[in-house]
């Protein structure tokens, strides 16, 4: 079976590929552990500006591994399992670096959850996002309800979830769920999309991700204060000074991440 995750670093982009194609990259314990370890490793590498998460084979991720879940004997074991798998969504949201989900085939159930946990989604034109939970009498997990409801209206979120909706790439794009639709290689499109991140200032991008992810939790005055304090710090960075110099010298800034 080989490694369940393949890692590659190229042109300041860290690639994580789910490599369980014979199971449509369904989330087993071992696969989740390896992805979390990979995210930790790549997020610590200062040369990497962005991470692209993709899947090998016919699908991005077909959701949770049903065979593995059948072996859970009671509510306590089930709760432990769901908490464990949810750590993957939390890790994607919490790391400093931007994460792009490059989706082809199906992102179903928990696979849709982890796509939504990414900062950006680039999807193949034939990709499908499946909310199949209601078909088996369940609700979404791994943060899907919150992450989806932050992107679309509550009325549409409830309709999609309760009807077991399968969403096309076109519909997902028109509803603001994904950033790009690819007609060719979705990973290559994700690399092209990542250009503004690779060439941009990593320090300020780190704080943009943090502030946007948490702004809904903040009182207005707290949000203003956080922005102002971070801005005061960023005004002292090399990258800010480089950006100003490049503006006046009419050249492209060369940010250094400091």
Automatic annotation (TrEMBL):
Q: Which UniProt keywords apply?
A: Lyase, Membrane, Transmembrane, Transmembrane helix
Which Pfam families does the entry link to?
A: ECH_1
Q: Where are the transmembrane segments?
A: 98-123
Q: Which residues form the signal peptide?
A: none
Q: Which InterPro entries match?
A: ClpP/crotonase-like_dom_sf, Enoyl-CoA_hyd/isom_CS, Enoyl-CoA_hydra/iso, Enoyl-CoA_hydra_C
Cite the CDD domains for this sequence.
crotonase-like
Keyword Transmembrane helix set for record: yes
Family named by the database record: Belongs to the enoyl-CoA hydratase/isomerase family.
Q: What is this protein called?
A: Enoyl-CoA hydratase/isomerase family protein
Mind giving the lineage of the organism this protein is from? Answer: Bacteria, Bacillati, Bacillota, Bacilli, Bacillales
């Amino acid at each position: 079976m080989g490694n369940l995750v393949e890692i590659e670093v190229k042109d300041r982009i860290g690639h994580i590929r789910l490599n369980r194609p014979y199971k449509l990259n369904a989330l087993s314990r071992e696969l989740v552990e390896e992805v979390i370890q990979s995210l930790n490793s790549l997020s610590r590498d200062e040369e990497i500006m962005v991470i692209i998460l993709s899947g090998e084979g016919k699908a991005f991720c077909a959701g949770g591994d049903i065979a593995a879940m059948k072996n859970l004997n009671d509510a306590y074991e089930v709760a432990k399992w769901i908490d464990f798998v949810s750590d993957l969504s939390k890790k994607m949201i919490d790391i400093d670096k931007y994460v792009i989900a490059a989706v082809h085939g199906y992102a179903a159930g928990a696979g849709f959850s982890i796509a939504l946990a990414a900062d950006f989604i680039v999807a193949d034109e034939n990709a499908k996002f499946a909310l199949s939970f209601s078909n088996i009498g369940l609700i979404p997990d791994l943060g899907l309800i919150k992450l989806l409801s932050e992107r679309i209206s509550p009325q549409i979120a409830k309709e999609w979830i309760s009807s077991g909706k399968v969403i096309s790439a076109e519909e997902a794009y028109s509803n603001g769920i994904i950033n790009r639709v690819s007609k060719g290689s979705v990973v290559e499109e994700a690399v092209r999309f990542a250009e503004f991140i690779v060439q941009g200032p990593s320090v300020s991008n780190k704080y943009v991700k943090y502030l946007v992810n948490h702004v809904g939790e903040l009182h207005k005055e707290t949000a203003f204060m956080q922005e102002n304090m971070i801005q005061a710090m960023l005004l002292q960075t090399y990258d800010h000074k480089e950006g100003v110099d490049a503006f006046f010298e009419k050249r492209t800034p060369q940010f250094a991440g400091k």
